[in-house]
Design goal:
The structure holds 2 protein chains of 2 kinds. Chain A is mainly α. Among the domains of chain A are: 43-93; 97-167, no CATH class. Chain A is 60% helix and 0% strand. Chain A has helices at residues 5-13, 24-41, 45-88, 97-113, 125-136, 144-150. The longest helix of chain A is centred in the middle third of the chain and has 44 residues, at 45-88. In chain A, 8% of the residues are buried. Chain B is mainly α. Chain B has 2 domains: 1-96, Orthogonal Bundle (Rna Polymerase Sigma Factor, Chain: A); 104-194, Winged helix-like DNA-binding domain superfamily/Winged helix DNA-binding domain (Arc Repressor Mutant, subunit A, Orthogonal Bundle). Chain B has 9 helices and no strands. In chain B, helix 1 (7-18) crosses helix 2 (22-44), helix 4 (74-93) packs across helix 8 and helix 8 crosses helix 9 (172-191). The longest helix of chain B is centred in the first third of the chain and has 23 residues, at 22-44. Chain B is elongated and about 55 Å long. At the A-B interface, helix 1 and helix 2 of A face helix 2, helix 3, helix 5, helix 6 and helix 7 of B.
Chain lengths: 177, 194
């Protein structure tokens, strides 16, 4: 025999007597308030991560703050010195050996087109050697007058001839025992 | 068992809570926790889950009460939160047939429905009440969540159709329809027992 609608309703109504253990509702509010306080202490993971990163970077910058400041100051000083030097001597910029050699070649070519008087002809081998040696040094700029002095122009309309009477040191054979 | 709460009193408590008085919300918690317990427990059929859910329901209500504009009664609003959270919980948990009838109040022995059901003139007089309740709980757990909610609110808690419709956000016709099908399902599940 099927349970009719009325009996089913009565049976369902009995379920309202299913209650929690005695004293449950007395403690419910306290537990609710406790959970709320606990929730305030519970922080999301991203918030904790942010705090830890902040603490790490603060510690790191505290340790290296003066090192960075010192390095920055040194860089600024060097940059300032270079800048002031360049402003004071515009042509005194540091040049490479190749640039100096190229400049010397141009000077020599210019000198060849202007033949000096015979009285100024100097054929000093020692000075020629000096010229070569100094041209290898990147910091020293060779004055044109010195180059002109090392030139040996030939009279009678011939092309000038440049003589290096000594051999560069690099051409010397190495010592052998 | 339709002890309707006083809306004005609730409105005042809500206004005090919104103004920053947490003690006013405590009054609402004490007032509605037994009723909401019955709602959640008869849908989950587990005391521990009910306790956790009920705490979460009130916590959510407290967090959201700033946005409560009073378009419905607090009673309806907090029941909506409870039903929605319970259904979401049940969907996550899946069906778990855990009955705990040990907590059944002894007051049932004096209930007139109980006496009538177990009287000698009743067709189900031979049935043991505990066994019947177990079967009923099993049948309840076989209902869909929406049907279970309607049966809980109407048959167990004695809410009117209109109130259930407001809580669930559906029409009264839908509530009646769900009740009809839920009762038929329950009758079918309990048929073997008789």
């Amino acid at each position: 025999m099927a349970l009719d609608e009325q009996n089913l309703s009565k049976l369902l109504r009995l379920k309202r007597f299913e209650q929690p253990p005695p004293g449950y509702f007395d403690d419910f509010l306290s537990e609710f308030q406790y959970r709320q306080r606990k929730e305030l202490l519970k922080r999301p993971a991203w918030d904790i991560l942010r705090d830890r990163l902040e603490a790490f970077w603060f510690h790191y910058f505290t340790l290296t703050r003066f090192a960075y400041a010192t390095a920055s100051l040194a860089v600024l000083c060097v940059a300032g010195a270079l800048t002031s030097n360049m402003l004071r001597y515009p042509g005194s910029s540091v040049r490479t050996s190749a640039q100096i050699l190229a400049a010397n070649a141009v000077n020599v070519a210019n000198a060849a087109t202007h033949v000096p008087p015979a009285s100024m002809q100097v054929a000093s081998t020692s000075r020629a050697t000096d010229t070569m040696n100094t041209s290898l040094s990147p910091q020293i700029r060779i004055p044109d007058a010195m180059l002109d002095a090392s030139v040996t122009p030939v009279a009678n309309g011939q092309h000038p001839r440049y003589i290096l009477d000594t051999r560069p040191v690099s051409y010397e054979p190495p010592f052998s025992f | 068992m339709t002890d309707e709460p006083a809306p004005n009193e609730d409105a005042q408590l809500v206004a005090r809570t919104q103004a920053g008085d947490p003690a006013a919300f405590d009054v609402l918690v004490v007032k509605y926790s037994p009723r909401l317990y019955g709602l959640v427990y008869n849908m989950t059929s587990n005391h521990e889950d009910t306790n956790d859910l009920l705490q979460d329901v009130f916590a959510k209500a407290y967090r959201s009460i700033g946005g409560f504009r009073g378009n419905s009664a607090f009673y309806t609003w907090v029941h909506s939160i409870a039903v929605n959270m319970t259904i979401n919980f049940l969907k996550k948990r899946g069906r778990r047939l855990t009955m705990s009838l040990d907590d059944m109040d002894s007051g049932v022995q004096n209930d007139k429905d109980f006496i009538e059901l177990t009287s000698s003139t009743n067709p189900v007089r031979e049935a043991d009440l505990s066994e019947l309740q177990i079967r009923l709980n099993e049948a309840m757990m076989k209902l869909s969540y929406d049907h279970r909610a309607v049966v809980t609110m109407f048959d167990i808690q004695g809410m009117p159709h209109a109130e259930i419709a407001k809580i669930l956000g559906v029409s009264e016709g839908t509530v009646r329809s769900r009740l009809f099908y839920a009762h038929r399902q329950l009758q079918n599940y309990l048929e073997e027992f008789h």
